[in-house]
Amino acid sequence: MSKGICAGKHAIAEYLIQQGFQLLELADKSQSHTTEPADDLRLQESEIRRKDDPKSLELTFQDADSLLDFATKRWQERWVTTDIADATTLDRFLLRPFFLLVSVDAPVSLRWKRFADRCWRRQLDPPELEKFVMWNDHNLYDKEIGRVYLTDKAQVRLFNSSSSLEELHSALKTLDLADEQRLRPNWDQYFMQLASLAAQRSNCMKRRVHGAIAGMEEESVSQPASVFTPKKTHYWKQAGSGFERGRSYIVIPQVGISEVVYSQGYNMDNDPYYKQQACGYDNFTRLRMGSSIFRDLNLNDQSQPKTNDLQFDNGGAEQFDLIEENYASASVNIRITAGLYQSYSMPTVHLLDYVAGNIRSLVNAINQVGYDVEWVKSPEDVKNADKLILPGVGHFGHCLSQLDKGGFLEPIRQHIEAGKPFMGICVGLQALFQGSEEDNDVPGLGLIPMRIQKFDDASKSVPHIGWNSAINTASDGTKNQSFYGLRPTSKYYYVHSYAAPYNPDVLEKDGWSVATATYGEEEFIGAISRGNIFGAQFHPEKSGVAGLRAIRAFLNGDQFQSLSQDLVTGKEDGLTRRVIACLDVRTNDSGDLVVTKGDQYDVREKSGADAGGSVRNLGKPVDMAKKYYEQGADEVTFLNITSFRNCPIADTPMLEILRRTSETVFVPLTIGGGIKDTVDTDGTRVPALDVATMYFKSGADKVSVGSDSVFAAEDYYHAGEKLSGQTAIETISQAYGKQAVVVSVDPKRVYVDKPEDTHHHTIKTQFPNSKGQSFCWYQCTVKGGRETRDIDVRQLVQAVEAMGAGEILLNCIDKDGSNSGFDLELINDVKAAIKIPVIASSGAGVPAHFAEVFNKTTTDAALGAGMFHRGEYTVTQVKDHLQMEGFLVRQFEAEI
């Protein structure tokens, strides 16, 4: 941080320290502001107050190079320093991508007043204003020590005219200096910089306007393009009526551009032709304001004026509470005041995150329906919230205890009692009840006089994972009425072991609207509503368009809707058969991330022009995930089969794939590969839980543990079937719930003459080998099938179930890439051994294979890969075939 004298650098540094930053200092801070040594006492800077820390001496360095080296090795932690005072040192720091330079300034008269107050506190005589100005000029413009160079290089410039620390802290909280996008621009910001550069060649006389056509599927720029002016015209009026002002708004959707992102609006001429064409434009192309720096502008809301200059109103706040920031991603400076941003702000909803798993997908879903998110970080934020969403996954007791420990329960109760809109998701719904069998010692909010109970696993898999109904139970003639956009023909994604059992008409008599689902023989509450309260046991952010519809209805306050007769009569209750698309992702020989598919785990070409070892390239991960989502895939699984050994864990390319995929794919995402205790490139040990957390924060709903689960199972049996509490499966499931942990199993057949020839569990197979042996056992492998272990598949799945795994992804090396159908014997053997759900994988080549596995086994889901990647069949065709065979499936909904 750099500053003028008494601009507030230390006050801001102290605020950051309160937010978890640590102070880095130089031992030698000597720097004279004057030519008179007697004045140095008055100019001596105050010591920065920081939290008591026994390690503080370790954070003082003899020179800037040592300080920089220390921070570089620990770049993922948060540091602040105020001791960078020369241009040469600053240039070295600016080379680091984790370094953010913040400059602070304030009016000279205000800084002089602050300086005088500081002198009085030190029992010193303050200087005259003229002398203070001379000191200030020396501090900024002296050839040797002048700091104006530092100010010019700042990525963030703060204008601190606050009259108190409270006002300053409030403004800093809004500003959020720790936002990572200030260091690494998102794609909106990146392309906006290119557009700003292109605008220097704009020929429009009203404003420098230009754009960049971005091939977002490739994340690269195809070409810069002038959007608002035609070629070969020197200024706007020259286009005349022949250009038909505003016609470029019509051209945009015609050439296939689905979205326009802008940083500054463009106020077109107010003629009838433009108004007519602009209305048509809104129907074809989404228009939004770019980057998280700006508030989104919902132009579909006709109540908002379609003027284009950014306007900020201080809402009556005094002008001294002004902070100005220069965002590198935009071509304008923005003034943010303590007042309100009026007319152009996207409507907001408050979201309470208490480490509830994949919160990114919920934020993306909220953004998708036209709302912005404000985070609840303290109980006071709940009191200020209008609409509040409480998400949640995992253990009831843990979630409620965390809320209670943070002081949130009572403010949430007061929010609901005040009649403000409240939505609870999954455990957020369960929190409304008196309590849960999952933890009898922890009470809920008690708004619903019932308790949550565990599903009976005697005849079905638990957790309940998959797509099920939410059908209105009304018996008073209002069955044709939906609440919060729920439709009896739609399916919603559930993942839970505990639920509220449904007792007919009990809650309805108390004014509740109830929608139910059925799992096995048990009918339970899928959603509930009364007045300002809406709760969903399912995850709307993972329920495709059907879930987005529910979120939008809640945020818009659209509680009840009438349903057409076809939506009422076409309902089918119950759990659907899940069809999952799997993408094996690795780098090819050119270093590009591609989707590939192997034959018995060998992903290199065997024939054709690329024969001889080239990695089979079947497409780009993000593009293919979106394609499968739009074909109706119930889940998308990414299996990372590249180690990225030389890449810092926080920069693993799979994280970016998840971030980008979760922006447009609203079904569950699973990521596998590398979920284990590991060592980062700088030598730092990273536990498996931390690795999983990075994936959850990037958009994953489940993580898949592979080889590490085999080693953990071996240790489990060696310890006499005792849990250590330290395995990846145990730590992740304890933190995020068992439904968040998938174990990927890679077994292969080992034939024997008779069961007595091995101590492993064997089956009598209908497919003897070439030697006529008709007994086999399934041996588990690690390292992508390259190494076998002395443990069979039954031992493995039973061990990981005991550790807390919520689902088994059951591969089969013998069937991989064969297109001959699933190994039904293996699936039935595993299903008989455990209670948790099983996903059948390996061998699917035609839609009939999916019908076969659902007919002849009790598998909970089936996964396909190569047949989809090669374009031989689509997910839609598989589901159509299943439906024709009498299976209940979820069909993709395209329109909200």
Automatic annotation (TrEMBL):
Residues 351-544 form the Glutamine amidotransferase domain. InterPro entries: Aldolase_TIM, Class_I_gatase-like, GATASE, His_biosynth, HisF, IGPS_HisA/HisF, Imidazole-glycPsynth_HisH, P-loop_NTPase. PROSITE patterns: GATASE_COBBQ (PS51274), GATASE_TYPE_1 (PS51273). Keywords: Amino-acid biosynthesis, Glutamine amidotransferase, Histidine biosynthesis, Hydrolase, Lyase, Multifunctional enzyme. Its EC number is 3.5.1.2, 4.3.2.10. Pathway: Amino-acid biosynthesis; L-histidine biosynthesis; L-histidine from 5-phospho-alpha-D-ribose 1-diphosphate: step 5/9. It comes from the Eukaryota. GO terms for molecular function: glutaminase activity; imidazoleglycerol-phosphate synthase activity; lyase activity. GO terms for biological process: L-histidine biosynthetic process. It catalyses: L-glutamine + H2O = L-glutamate + NH4(+); 5-[(5-phospho-1-deoxy-D-ribulos-1-ylimino)methylamino]-1-(5-phospho-beta-D-ribosyl)imidazole-4-carboxamide + L-glutamine = D-erythro-1-(imidazol-4-yl)glycerol 3-phosphate + 5-amino-1-(5-phospho-beta-D-ribosyl)imidazole-4-carboxamide + L-glutamate + H(+). NCBIfam families: hisF (TIGR00735), IMP_synth_hisH (TIGR01855). HAMAP family: HisH. IGPS catalyzes the conversion of PRFAR and glutamine to IGP, AICAR and glutamate. The glutaminase domain produces the ammonia necessary for the cyclase domain to produce IGP and AICAR from PRFAR. The ammonia is channeled to the active site of the cyclase domain. This is Imidazole glycerol phosphate synthase hisHF.
